[in-house]
């Protein structure tokens, strides 16, 4: 990553000095991914200057790597003919990644200006829903009939594949064009030229349809360690292929989604999204949180009389709730991640519950004793300290149960368990924490005064 | 994934009926990843029965796919000779994944029982630190001198590579065995046999050393869309290669780590870890949380007199703190994830800060008005409602600043920003939430009564 930093500095200096020729030479030898990393941190005017120094092929590769927000601003600053010429140089699935981010009108204008064949290919891909295998796939692949020999297959590849198109599987189809297997390219190299392809193809091949969710595609790649996933129609006729580098992007997206939804943030928010776009989702969760906090407050309201009598209760009250909060967050985080990775199933639910209850008891007793000691040293009331300790252990136990069961229950109802965000789950321990502590204190009030 | 469910059911039925022969036939046609998924949900006795029906090669593949905890129990239940025979059939890097999880004594016994050559290969890999490229790499690769022709290279591959060993890059070395480039296998297929390898190899190739952190390896694969990363020594001599399927596992591990550390859980905890192992980390964060909660409580303690005078304050107090909590969590989650993905750099810090402050003001005003209305309807005190609204907006603003700056500051000090877990950051808004609300109320107390 140090190289990128050095590249970034050189680019800044050359841009500031206006030495465009020297800059063009530097960019020519750089990797598109590194250039795009530099582009995103520049002012828009400098972005455009730098971008115009790239040859169309490299410019396309840089565009394909940019974050949505940066891409949008840059394309807006360039003119449409310029953009269309760059897109003409890119593989159709990469063009899709760029065009799908643009406002509809601008996208249509640019597609009109592009070469007809490429434009049509792109528009076909754009018809598949976002987040589906169809939207992700490349319609370019190499396929041969299962009856040809290795030598014939190699001959076919030489004729049809351009040297630039990376491919690692040769697809094998029967006489009706149905996908029947694949041959990893390295097997082509090691096989005898006269061997029939049929003899070296894999048995069955995992494929998906254009409607398959991209998450399912990612799980397939992870589980079976394949480098490409073929996309087929209802008759198992090959339509395209999804390669592992696109799948890695999906894995990142899904991880971001899981992390952010759990915290009450839209799953695809990035640091540079405009506030206007982010506002509704952020506000929604803040309002939900206001609702749950008000619910917890109403529990306190029930005990207003006790607090009036003994204001010290108000001092310790948030500690019990806060400890329940971390208890649920820790448990639910491990459970939600376990569900996402397929490790948390109903078969292991009982074992997980036993683990969490043991942890709740052990850490609850330990922290309960510490809290009792702190409160005794502070206020000198042994009964109050006891009540605090007991309420804390109780709340930790509740946290273990709620943190395990709520995500599993949501999953059973086919709701994304990440939605069981901290906001929702901690409501239980807030409400019960206030209730158990203040309730116990009220019951024993006459001994506390 | 439906197929796995069906496979699991058939296996359960056949195990229960004791039809081992039928079961063996079923397992023979199944994928190792699917079998391992089924194994983990079985009782240990059944796991062993099923496992002994697998041929050694498939048994090895299943072992390599199992979670640490399940693996440990299963290996303990089998005898060492049995395990060593299975490991003999596995590629050395997969053996490492199994052996590194076992207790030291058992691991040594098993390595002693293995074939000498394989055992030595494995022990060499085990000398590299956990989480490094050395521990992750396979020492098997195909390399040719840059002066050979494509035909000669293919001849060399035919002789040296077994058909089972998947490989997608041919490594190219100079006369001193230094790595100078790679040739993706598909290029070998399309090139003329008389072409010198030198002419079709890539320019420079990104490589790592045995000490490189696995996270850096993953970033390299993501950034440059490569399928394998070569591992070299200080003199650029090739030692091994890391393939993309191992990198995908690393990406998952890292995402889990980010998610869990943020919630105060050890980054590698899985749902089935024994409570004993998990206890120290869980307890540590619960104790830290107890400390920060006590800090917040001590702020309330400063205003005990005001609460004694007006117990209603205690009812609304947690709402202001809770709203600050969701504010910091939302902001910090997006920022921490942005840092992990390389999108959040100091160049964009100012823009992100403006975004977050705008969001804090807009959502703060909206939720502040709602809270003021709720409290007015509940208690009928217009001044109290005003104080609540103002304290809430103030706390949301603080949340925006803290949620952005704390992770960035930690990163500047080279501390993992995910450690800036909710526990730490929300302390700020807890303390300030209580302080601003109770402070304002105390200042204006005589108008409140």
Q: Give the neighbour order of strands across the main sheet of chain A.
A: 1-2-3
How many structural units, i.e. domains of chain A? Answer: 3
Return Rg of chain A in Å: 30 Å
CATH T-level fold name of the largest domain in chain A? Tetracycline Repressor, domain 2
CATH-wise, what's the superfamily of the largest domain in chain A? SLC41 divalent cation transporters, integral membrane domain
Count all strands of chain A and give the number.
6
Major sheet size, sense and barrel closure of chain A: 3 strands, mixed
Strand content of chain A: 5-15%
| Low-pLDDT runs of chain A | none
Total helices of chain A: the number is 23
Measure the end-to-end span of chain A: 65 Å
Mean pLDDT over the residues of chain A: 90
Which chains share the greatest interface?
A-B, 120 and 121 residues
Oligomer: homodimer
Could you characterize what this model shows?
- 2 copies of one chain form a homodimer.
- Chain A is mainly alpha-helical and 449 residues long.
- Chain A folds into 3 domains: 2-127, MgtE N-terminal fold; 143-255, CBS-domain (Roll); 275-448, SLC41 divalent cation transporters, integral membrane domain (Tetracycline Repressor, domain 2).
- In chain A, 68% of the residues lie in helices and 6% in strands.
- Chain A contains 23 helices and 6 strands.
- A 3-stranded mixed β-sheet of chain A has the order 1-2-3. Chain A has a 3-stranded mixed β-sheet with strand order 4-5-6.
- In chain A, β4, α15 (214-224) and β5 (228-232) form a beta-alpha-beta unit.
- In chain A, 47% of the residues are buried.
- At the A-B interface, α3, α12, α13, α15 and α16 of A face α3, α12, α13, α15 and α16 of B.
């Amino acid at each position: 990553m140090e190289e990128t930093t050095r590249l970034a500095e050189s680019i800044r200096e050359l841009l500031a000095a206006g030495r465009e020729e020297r800059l063009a030479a530097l960019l020519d030898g750089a990797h598109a991914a590194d250039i795009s990393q530099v582009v995103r941190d520049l002012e828009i005017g400098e972005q455009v200057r730098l971008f115009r120094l790239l040859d169309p092929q490299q410019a396309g590769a840089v565009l394909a790597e940019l974050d949505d927000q940066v891409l949008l601003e840059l394309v807006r600053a360039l003119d449409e003919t310029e953009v269309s010429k760059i897109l003409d140089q890119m593989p159709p699935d990469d063009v899709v990644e760029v065009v799908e981010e643009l406002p509809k009108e601008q996208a249509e204008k640019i597609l009109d200006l592009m070469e007809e064949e490429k434009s049509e290919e792109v528009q076909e891909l754009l018809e598949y829903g976002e987040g589906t295998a169809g939207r992700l796939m490349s319609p370019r692949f190499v396929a041969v009939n299962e009856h040809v020999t290795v030598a014939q297959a190699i001959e076919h590849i030489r004729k049809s594949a351009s040297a630039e198109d990376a491919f690692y599987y040769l697809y094998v189809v029967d006489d009706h064009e149905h996908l029947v297997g694949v041959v990893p390219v390295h097997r082509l190299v090691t096989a005898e030229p006269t061997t029939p392809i049929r003899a070296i193809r894999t048995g069955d091949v995992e494929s998906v349809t254009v409607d398959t969710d991209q998450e399912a595609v990612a799980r397939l790649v992870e589980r079976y360690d394949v480098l490409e996933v073929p996309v087929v129609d209802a008759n198992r006729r090959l339509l395209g292929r999804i390669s592992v580098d696109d799948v890695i992007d999906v894995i990142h997206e899904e991880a971001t989604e899981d992390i952010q939804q759990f915290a009450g943030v839209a799953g695809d928010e990035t640091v540079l999204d405009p506030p206007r776009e982010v506002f509704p989702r952020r506000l929604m969760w803040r309002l939900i949180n206001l609702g749950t906090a008000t619910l917890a407050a109403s529990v306190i309201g029930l005990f207003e009389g006790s607090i009036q009598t003994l204001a010290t209760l108000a001092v310790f009250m948030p500690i019990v709730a806060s400890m329940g909060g971390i208890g649920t967050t820790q448990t639910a985080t491990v459970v939600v991640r376990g569900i996402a990775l397929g490790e948390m199933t109903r078969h292991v639910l009982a074992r997980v519950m036993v683990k969490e209850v043991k942890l709740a008891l052990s850490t609850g007793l330990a922290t309960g004793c510490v809290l009792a000691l702190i409160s005794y040293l502070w206020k000198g009331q042994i009964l109050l300290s006891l009540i605090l300790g007991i309420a804390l252990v109780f709340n930790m136990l509740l946290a273990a149960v709620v943190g395990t069961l709520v995500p599993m229950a949501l999953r059973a109802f086919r709701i994304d368990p990440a939605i069981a965000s901290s906001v929702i789950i901690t409501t239980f321990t807030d409400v019960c924490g206030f209730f158990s502590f203040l309730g116990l204190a009220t019951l024993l009030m006459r001994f506390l005064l």
